[in-house]
Design a protein that fits this description.
globular, six-stranded mixed sheet, SH3 type barrels, 91 residues, 2 helices
Length: 91
């Protein structure tokens, strides 16, 4: 299945345990291997807090569909925990 860059941008990102992380804002393409190397995910603006950016390596991606991207639960566990504390990610 092919998915275009316009389908990837703003695609919701969830962990395996269904925690919403945010939406894809951009990605890096390795021109030598012609594969996506990492995705940039922006969390939402909640309670007056500024957006945060998560960087997700392609190796941490479990699945991508036209509806969502699912990533490993252990993705930046510390970052996700910190985002949960300030209310940017729901537990």
């Amino acid at each position: 299945m092919l998915i275009s860059s316009t389908d990837l941008i703003n695609l919701p990102v969830y962990t395996q345990s269904a925690k919403y992380l945010g939406e894809i804002t951009s990605f890096d393409l390795d021109i030598d291997s012609r594969i996506v190397s990492q995705f940039y995910v922006k969390t939402g603006l909640i309670k007056g807090l500024w957006h945060e950016q998560l960087i997700i390596a392609a190796t941490q991606v479990i699945s991508i569909t036209k509806d969502k991207m699912v990533v490993e639960d252990n993705i930046n566990k510390q970052s996700v925990s910190e985002l949960e504390k300030v209310g940017l990610v729901s537990s």
